[in-house]
Amino acid sequence: MKKFILFFAILALAIVACQENTDEVAPTQETLTVDMSDFYVHTYDDLSARSATASNNDKCYSMKVLNQQLAENPGLYKKMYNIEKHTRTLIAAKGKPTKPGGGGNGGGTTPTPYEGTVNIPVYIYVVYSNSSQNISDSQINSQIAVLNADFNDTNYNDVPSEFQNLGADIDINFTLATVDRQANSTPSWGTSSAVKNAYPAIPDHLTIWVANIGGGILGYAQFPGGSAATDGVVISPQYFGTTGTATAPFDKGRTATHEVGHWLNLRHIWGDGRCRQDDFVADTPSSDGPNYGCPSYPTVNCKSTDMTMNYMDYTDDDCMNMFTQGQKDRMRAIFATGGARENLVQ
Amino acid sequence: MKFLIFFSTLILILPPSCEKQEAKKEIEIKYSAQTRGFKYVLHLKNNILKIDKNNEIKEITLNKSQYSNIHNLVNNIEFNKIENNISTDELAVDRAIIGIFTIKLKEKKYTFEFNHHKLPYPIQDLLNHLEALLN
Known about the structure:
The structure holds two protein chains of two kinds.
Chain A: H1 2-18, H2 58-72, H3 74-94, E1 118-128, H4 137-150, H5 161-164, E2 172-183, H6 194-198, E3 206-210, E4 219-220, E5 232-235, H7 254-263, E6 300-301, E7 304-305, H8 325-333
Parallel strand pairs in A: 1-2, 1-3, 3-5
Antiparallel strand pairs in A: 4-5, 6-7
Chain B: H1 2-25, E1 27-35, E2 38-45, E3 48-53, E4 56-61, H2 64-75, H3 88-92, E5 98-105, E6 108-115, H4 121-133
Antiparallel strand pairs in B: 1-2, 1-5, 2-3, 3-4, 5-6
Helix pairs in contact in B: 2-4
């Protein structure tokens, strides 16, 4: 009997010893495979285009639109796909971000895909048709101060305990390089990139156009991978900075924080769809839509508490105050070798 | 005999009046466009029309003529030919405001997602008409 047990013990030891210890093998970008099956640039979600009595046509219609849009701009799709794949590969190589919910599984320890402080020079166009749109240097400086505070936040005691261990210091600094004031009779520019076409983006900078957009839109951005001439963010003057013409409840500079988040490859926290559509960040909870105003805590959707205080939600300036570790990884991945904004750290 | 006349009269009067009540209930329109810093919601249910523009709320009760006009407008819209026109590309970077339009028309329900600033003409026309009633 003893011999029998000894034989099996040796056999088990031999099997375990011969197995490859995967924990000790550092994954490399070349060997990692990442799942891109959920990647989307544009798609319709649950809402149907047709009468509820004709629901069988809905999917076909959505696909038709999607395919049409892809056909119109396949180059952009490919670029965005590659950026996403690069981001996921780096994040997968560095380890998985923590899960939401405060389950005591640790947080804030995931290494970032790009190490070291990132310094971004900011070129600001102030495009004005009247004196109130020609905002002061003081208002501009107040916005730069907010960007630096929000992207270097180390104190997350001001968020619900459920999310405290997810808060991240993004470690990105913004330096005001140039303020370029341009008088122009256009009273409002809309979102057609007209203002960007009139005053092109500056390479190797974050370009911000402070120009009246109108139509109820506070600001808009461009993801990495788009045209260099339009690369940057546009913000209406009354939602820029914290002083001067900045107007409550959007007078704490968070419109710029949100738009720069997009510029650094962040999606809206609800993924621009229903519960099943993701923002490609593992440690942000699912949600079925944006939150507005100053929601009470907890606001529960998709069976989890919404992170309404995240900069990538749609809440009021005073009620948003955090990025997560997963969002940090996404943002910093674009500065790594081969990343879409690698040029800013070279 | 008196009873017979009474019930005959009742039978003749009641159905049309009930039909009118039903007619008022047969259309429900809701249009909601919202983004950060912007809210526009129009809602017609029965003969109550309500608007919420950035939390400024107005409400009226429509008279028969007003309701009838809306009925005519709606009946002239070919909802089967209207298509969604919102781009999630634009929504994802805040370049557009999504407008969700729902209409319950008798037994049918249609729902569309539009770019609030690029509404199809018949929908824009209908919403303009509804909003004008509130001014």
